[in-house]
Amino acid sequence: MSIRYRWRAGCIRRRLQLARYWQSKGDLDEAVGHGRRALRLARAASSGPTLLDAEAALTVAGIELDRAEYPAATAHLADAARWLEQIPETAERDRLLARVLVALADCHRRTGDYWQAEHALGRARPLAEAAGGALPAAVLTQLGITAKELGAFDRAAQQYARLRQLYDETGATPAEFAALSHNLAGLAHARGDYLDAETHARRAVDTRRSGSHTNPVDLAQDLAVLAAALAGQDRHEEARTLLHEALAICRAARPPRQYEIAVQLHNLAAIEQTLGDTDTAERHYRQALTIKERLLGSEHPEIALLTNNLATLLHQQERHAEAVAYQHRALSIATRTFAPEHPVVVAIRRNLAGTDADHLLQQTSPSDVTETSTALGQPARAVGDQLCP
Q: pLDDT per residue over 242-252, tens digit each?
């Protein structure tokens, strides 16, 4: 290895350290600049794939994931995996490949491709178990999140139980403990156990607030899941205050976290709808929908949840024809992604049946609609999950 290459490799590693430092601080504008520079240097310095190339691509992909730039993240991770597969197998190579596959699974899950996410995790798991360290925890976290999003709540609980046992045996950093508490809160919320969700969410928030190196956006995510747990207990004013705090954090981030902003707007819309401010609720729903369609595409499963919830508001306003159209769209998306018994599919079908009935009644006897309107129940709220740091 030439002196020039060793010098350049040192420059690349310093850039990657800076990129990861700024990412941990929540400044993705600064982080992505250092990461992209490191990746360009790495590709220019080598005549063939190296571990340093893959590490640079993985670092940039992680930053792009946080920026909700999913196509860019996927491309970097695909490059990293392809390069690593051309390198002879060593413990270091396998450890890095496991990290790439876990990140690729995360990217597939976020874009709604759950089959590809589970496939990548299946490949990562034996490599992670052989490598040890933080990798087995990262795999278990991803498996738990993916199972929860697929509606397999018992399977998710099993993965989190294994993760908690692993942390009991090996120890966990405050950030890892907060992430597990957050995800347990999200699972409890999905099951409708709002008191349990509140307990876990408060642990996450307390851990973040007591930490000296907390990423503010991580705290905002914890505040959102706590707000959802409180809203489930009809403590709407408390929930609204927390969501406005979370929204302010996400808007102040560099760059503003558009995906997280959409999550907070979605949750605030549900609060305002419950409290009777339907104009504000509709505005928040539509803002959230616009952002998520831009980031995720129009056929993502999260779009099904949003359009269903917007439809419940339109139904509440007796705009039944619009509500039916949105719920048909929601059902079309959800049934392409989830099993028939998935809670989201079941809720949309129930809501659509009620809206269809009221739409028909409005067409035949408009004066009777308000008196015979079918109650659709509270709209579901968006609760995000967190990865192990």
A: 999 999 999 99
Q: What is the pLDDT of residues 102-147, one digit of tens each?
A: 999 999 999 999 999 999 999 999 999 999 999 999 999 999 999 9
Residue 73: half-sphere exposure toward Cβ, Cα within 13 Å: 25
State the CB neighbour count (10 A cutoff) for residue 10.
10
| Residue among 181, 215, 199 at smallest CA distance from 25 | 215
* DSSP assignment string, 239-261: HHHHHHHHHHHHHHSBS--HHHH
Q: Quick check: 361 and 353 in contact, CB under 8 A?
A: no
Using alpha carbons, select from 262, 302, 304 the residue that is nearest to residue 286. 262
Angle at 346 (CA atoms; ends 189, 116), nearest 5 degrees: 75
Whether the bond into 255 is cis, omega within 30 of 0: yes
3-state secondary structure of 27: strand
Measured torsion, CA atoms of residues 44, 88, 13, 178, in degrees rounded to the nearest 10: 130
Q: From its phi and psi, is residue 309 left (phi > 0), alpha (psi between -120 and 50) or beta?
A: alpha
CB 133 within 8 A of CB 98: no
Q: How far apart are CA 144 and CA 282, in angstroms?
A: 32
Rounded (5°) CA angle 14-17-18: 90
Buried/exposed 108-127: b ≥16 CB within 10 Å, e otherwise = bbbbbbbebbbebbebbbeb
Q: 309, exposed or middle or buried, with CB in 10 Å at 0-12, 13-18, 19+?
A: buried
Q: Enter the tokens of residue 219.
A: 């705290």
Q: Which region holds residue 171: left if phi is over 0, alpha if psi is between -120 and 50, else beta?
A: left
